[in-house]
Specification:
The chain is α+β, with helices and mostly antiparallel strands and 880 residues long. The chain is 19% helix and 32% strand. The protein is built from 12 helices and 50 strands. The strands form 13 sheets. Strands 27, 28, 31, 33, 34, 35, 36, 37 and 41 form a 9-stranded antiparallel β-sheet that branches. Strands 8-7-6-3-9-16-17-18 form an 8-stranded mixed β-sheet. A hairpin with a 2-residue loop joins strand 35 and strand 36. Helix 5 (344-354) packs across helix 6. The longest helix is centred in the last third of the chain and has 22 residues, at 708-729. The chain is globular and about 80 Å long.
């Protein structure tokens, strides 16, 4: 027998030997072992706090809320060894992980290039790696590699003859896209002072500043389970794409609770931390989160969330068919990538700002990014370590980045394996890596820093390299995705279009043509691929679970492109003045109502059809300046056709038998091209061009084939039910009459019930008034004037914005110069924070310069604002 230092047990009666620093049993028997090791910080307390990672600025913790673990699963197919390890930490540098692998290799002989070590991405653990404004907790980081190696060695020591299986289930309910495309007038300002962010994280629930998510969701929850040959559970290794669900530090966030629930489900003691081990790895969640920002906020807790995800995993576990053997393969690749480097102007700014930083601890976001600019300038390049893993017909891609869900979906759709999942933040942490087209939309995950600084084409290079690795690991060619045509698409193709762009692409700058002889369309910068398409659901609220439709086949979901400054350039040589263009359009979530206008179609003769969105979130169309009276809903898909016959133009919509617009034009020349969606700010889908004028009967056939009318009817019924529920919730409180009478008896200077706008106040922004005696504010306010001197004011309020959305969740009352950047005067508000463990409290403060703040004792939970009416009052003496 062959022993290596640190191995606590080896199987008896088996010949073990080493080859290329590997310890294997060459007998074809499948074995597995698992172990968990506690990595909670030692001696933590007020005098010895831990530095906590996960925010823009550094935080500290002085207690352990729940323990942290490193969990390892070692697999041996009788020919080769490998291990999968997950660490309860935010992220780890490649250098730290390589140290852990070297120690484990010395102890157990598992080859270094057969180890995968990743982070769960808890935002409540000690900083094993410094990032943004947080320094590394060096003492903890120096201690961690040995503990990781200890877990791997213990798992190796627990190896026994085993069976293995895997399965997956789609869980749409617990993960959503957190990066939303914003209206052009609501761009986010980056740390360098540029208002260029057309997409950004965490917009708030049903914000009116956004249009829709900037990317799709990967809902797949995957599990690997191993058990002894007698059926005793050994381990469950799960994977889910959801960024994190925060907790007060020090904590493993929801990941540790999930593992405990899995242990309970499997009827195993120890909470999943031994002898049975439960682990959950991080999927491709760089743009995902548990919040559904397209719906009202909910009151779910971390504990509830963890249990519900575990119950979803239970459904996947119940589907597993265990195998006595599964061949293993492990391919490791390295690619060198450049950083997006600061230019001389940015460097000059960064040096000046960074000179103010003390102890390498930035105190605000500009200082963070100034310091990061200097880091990128010094680093220039980096090397990524990528891994492609095979376990039977399951494949895994391991990535040292926080990648978008679209990247994960690309890898899954192209992997040769029948089952596939991805593990991010594996073998290092090289920051966010958006798909190339997302860079043009800006936002936090594109701001140059070590956390988001790689070259624009990094994602494409990484995907190509990983798919090549998966081909090598499986010995099979990658899968290719071909559009499946549902009833609507078949109806279009049966009508012999000249061009038909279905817009189901995952990447690139061109849209393929469903017509064999057709020409690809080109996309200009400012768009997002692979959003939910017409007929397949919205990905939001009750339509969050996407499905196949009459547009897509039974094994596909219809997709669309979101245009945010970009457009679709379409070519069709030899086009005459008789033609028809059909497409589907969607202009934004219901909350994002605004007055917007974009060009839907520019015809080959220059004729222009515009889509106009009203403040009531209705859609009308405008042809050559003439606006229709037809009204569609902007948050529904609408079918639009522009039909040209000689000098006559007609516009049809949603299967109506008569045109909603018509015009006569004189065209000097018909070009070979037309455009879709210039300045549109919304989604388009299923663009078809016919080299003839189509009659309304055929257009009605297309509309009927889509079955979208049924979806509209269901949506109308849902709206009516929601309105009924809202009306029931907002009945006037029983004290309304008595309270108003009592207030009036006090002879107030001014009293408003707010069932309508008071004549003495000016409403700015979005403020609506309800007969139930209250005003509803969505980024709006009421402005007025008052006399100088002493005053008292009281207000009833219901806050619906989550406390952790921003430092001040709401300004209930302000007295001072309007628009003053320093906020001089008196302010009554609700204090919040970007921290996940914050508790909102009523605050009274005098401006941003004086730092005079009074904090009340009333508390609001961090997950959500108060959903009940509450009372607040502020008074001031004339002599203070």
């Amino acid at each position: 027998m062959f022993f290596r230092p640190g191995c606590t047990a080896l199987l008896l009666g088996t010949l073990w030997f080493t080859t290329n620093d590997r310890t294997i049993a060459d007998d074809g028997i499948f074995r597995a072992g698992a172990a968990a090791v506690d990595i909670s910080p030692i001696d933590i307390g007020p005098s010895n706090p831990s530095i906590i990672a996960g925010g823009f600025l550094e935080a500290q913790a002085t207690k352990i809320v729940d323990p942290l673990y490193v969990r390892s699963l070692v697999l041996d197919d009788g020919r080769s060894l490998m291990c999968l390890t997950v660490v309860d930490t935010c992220m780890m540098s490649r250098n730290l992980i390589d140290k852990a692998k070297a120690i484990a290799n010395m102890q157990c002989g598992i080859p270094i290039d057969r180890m995968m070590i990743s982070a769960t991405h808890t935002h409540s653990a000690p900083a094993a790696m410094g990032c943004l404004g947080t320094r590394q907790d060096k003492k903890y980081a120096d201690w961690l590699p040995g503990k990781i190696a200890e877990s791997i060695a213990a798992a190796f020591g627990n190896v026994q003859t085993a069976r293995i299986g895997w399965a997956s289930i789609d869980d749409w309910h617990h993960t959503h896209n957190r990066r939303w495309i914003r209206k052009p007038e609501a761009k986010v300002v980056d740390p360098f002072g540029n208002a260029n962010g057309l997409a950004h994280m965490h917009p708030g629930y049903q914000s009116q500043d956004v249009i829709g998510p900037s990317g799709p969701v990967d809902p797949t929850l995957s599990v690997i389970a191993v058990q002894s040959t007698s059926g005793q559970p050994i381990a469950v290794f799960a994977n889910y794409s959801q960024h994190y669900f925060g907790s007060t530090a020090v904590s493993s966030d929801y990941y540790g609770l999930f593992c405990r629930h899995i242990a309970t489900i499997m009827r195993q003691p120890g909470g999943g931390n031994g002898p049975f081990v439960a682990a959950i790895s991080q999927g491709t969640s760089g743009d995902l989160m548990w919040m559904d920002y397209g719906s009202p906020s909910t009151n779910g807790s971390l504990a509830q969330y963890a249990e519900e995800v575990a119950r979803s995993a239970e459904k996947a576990i119940s589907k597993i068919v265990y195998k006595d053997h599964a061949p293993l393969a492990f391919v490791e690749k390295r690619i060198e990538l450049s950083y997006r480097l600061p230019d001389e102007t940015r460097l000059d700014w960064a040096r000046k700002v960074a000179a103010q930083i003390q102890d390498e601890k930035p105190k605000n976001i500009p200082e963070v990014y100034a310091q990061e600019a200097l880091f990128l300038h010094a680093l220039q390049k980096t090397e990524l370590k990528l891994q492609a893993i095979r376990i039977g017909d399951l494949t895994i891609a391991a990535i040292p980045n926080e990648v978008y869900s679209l990247t994960g979906l690309k890898l899954r759709s192209r992997s040769p394996g029948e089952f596939h999942f991805n593990i991010e933040l594996a073998n290092g942490a090289d920051g966010y890596i958006p798909p190339p087209e997302q860079h043009a939309l800006g936002g936090y995950t594109t701001w140059p820093a070590r956390t988001a600084g790689l070259e624009v084409q990094a994602e494409t290079k990484m995907v190509d390299s990983l798919v090549e690795g998966l081909e090598t690991a499986t010995g099979q060619q990658r899968r290719t995705r071909n559009d499946e045509h549902g009833g609507y698409a078949q109806s279009i193709l049966a009508a012999n279009p000249q061009q038909y762009w279905r817009l189901n692409e995952q990447d690139g700058l061109t849209a393929s043509n469903a017509v064999a002889t057709g020409i690809p369309a080109k996309l200009t910068s400012g768009f997002a691929w692979y959003l939910p398409g017409v007929g397949s659901g919205s990905g939001i609220g009750k339509s969050e679970a996407l499905k196949h439709s009459e547009f897509s086949g039974p094994d596909q979901i219809n997709r669309s492109v979101h245009l945010a400054g970009g457009k679709l350039e379409c070519f069709s040589p030899g086009l005459q003045d008789s033609y028809s263009v059909c497409c589907w359009v969607w202009l934004g979530e219901r909350s994002g109502a605004s007055q917007r206008e974009g060009t839907l179609i520019v015809g080959p003769g220059g004729e222009t059809l515009k889509a106009v969105q009203t403040p009531e979130h209705e859609l009308t169309l405008s042809l050559l300046g003439k606006q229709s009276t037809w009204k569609g809903r902007c948050d529904q898909w609408n079918f639009v056709a522009l039909v040209s016959h000689g000098d006559s133009l007609r516009v049809y919509s949603n299967g109506l038998p008569e045109p909603i617009l018509s015009a006569t034009v004189a065209r000097a020349k018909v070009a070979d091209n037309f455009t879709i969606g210039e300045g549109l700010q919304g989604k388009v889908d299923e663009v078809a061009l016919f080299a003839r004028a189509i009659d309304s009967g055929l257009l009605k056939q297309f509309w009927d084939a889509s079955l979208v009318q049924d979806e509209h009817n269901q949506d109308l019924a849902q709206r009516q039910q929601e309105q009924s529920e809202r009306n029931a919730r907002i009945k006037p409180p029983s004290f309304a009459t008595e309270y108003a009478d009592w207030i009036n008896s006090l002879e107030p200077t001014w009293f408003a019930k707010l069932d309508s706008r008071p004549t003495s106040l000016q409403a700015t922004g979005s403020v609506t008034f309800h007969p139930a005696n209250y005003a509803h504010f969505q980024s709006g306010r009421l402005n007025g004037t008052m006399n100088k001197g002493a005053y008292s004011t009281s207000i009833w309020f219901r806050n619906e914005l989550p406390i952790r959305s921003r430092p001040v969740t709401a300004y209930l009352f302000s007295r001072g110069p309007n628009g003053d950047a320093l906020a001089a005067g008196d302010h009554l508000g609700i204090g919040g924070s970007y921290r996940t463990d914050c508790t909102g409290k009523l605050i009274v403060f005098n401006g941003n310069r004086r730092d005079q703040v009074l904090v009340g004792k009333a508390q609001y939970p961090p997950e959500h604002g108060s959903t009940q009416f509450l009372f607040a009052m502020v008074a001031r003496s004339a002599f203070i």
